[in-house]
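Query structure, 242 tokens:
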């Protein structure tokens, strides 16, 4: 299948809460950090598989603003992984036409991490196959409060501001499909505005075990759902009219 470019926004926006790393590791007698390391390989797999699934925007929840409550060593492992990922994957993103963006606060991150983010964003800015957004130190409520503080007068303006607040290069985009791995069924302050009409897909599979086939299954389930956006389906509408 020829992937559509994200400039025209024809493809899907899929957002993923990558949950279950810690439990995956603990179930194997490993430290939680091992789950995050293996989770990074699942990130690569999913990014690789996304364009063939018709996904043109992929937003991954890598670190929530509430994750600062975790023990320091776990937070350090995560940020080392993010930095390494940004440094080692940028060339491959350029080659594959992936535009990388980081959404979330940057003021609490180290200069090293911020620098790695800026370099990756600049190097991949011309990508048109997949817009890959990593949410790091991200809180949807905080982003909404910040956007609202500029006094938007319309939904469109709020969406412009949400995009700008979260550090993205464009207006924020509605989520079509929101996937959460790891068995929990909640949104955890992720893309609350953008997911107003998202189809929700929860799977018990832990993130490190999430294979490209699992992404294709989730997208296939999305296509089986009937999206009505508060309206009626055609058959029902004619039944009501008659
Ligand atoms: C949630 O699992 C996962 C995270 C808080 C971190 C997500 C990070 C990665 C997948 C690592 C690599 C990411 C990139 C972008 C390179 P959890 O620790 O809450 O798992 P648990 O619910 O089983 O404890």
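Result returned for the query:
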């Amino acid at each position: 299948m020829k992937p559509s470019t994200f400039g025209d926004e024809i493809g899907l926006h899929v957002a993923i809460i990558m949950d279950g790393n810690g439990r995956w590791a603990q179930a194997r007698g490993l430290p939680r950090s091992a789950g995050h390391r293996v989770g990074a390989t699942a990130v690569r797999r999913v990014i690789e598989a996304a364009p063939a699934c018709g996904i043109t925007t992929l937003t991954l929840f890598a670190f929530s603003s509430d994750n600062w409550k975790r023990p320091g060593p776990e937070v350090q492992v995560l940020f080392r992984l993010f930095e390494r990922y940004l440094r080692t994957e940028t060339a491959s993103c350029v080659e594959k036409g992936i535009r990388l963006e980081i959404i979330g606060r940057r003021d609490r991150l180290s200069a090293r991490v911020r620098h790695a983010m800026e370099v990756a964003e600049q190097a991949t800015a011309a990508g048109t196959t997949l817009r890959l957004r990593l949410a790091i130190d991200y809180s949807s409520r905080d982003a909404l409060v910040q956007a609202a503080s500029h006094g938007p007068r319309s939904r469109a303006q709020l969406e412009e501001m949400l995009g700008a607040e979260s550090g993205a290069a464009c207006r924020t985009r509605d989520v079509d499909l929101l996937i959460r791995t790891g068995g929990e069924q909640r949104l955890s302050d992720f893309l609350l505005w953008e997911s107003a009409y998202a189809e929700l897909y929860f799977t018990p599979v832990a993130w490190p075990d999430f294979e490209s086939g699992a992404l294709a299954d989730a997208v296939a389930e999305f296509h089986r759902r009937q999206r009505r956006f508060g309206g009626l389906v055609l058959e029902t509408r004619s039944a009501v009219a008659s």
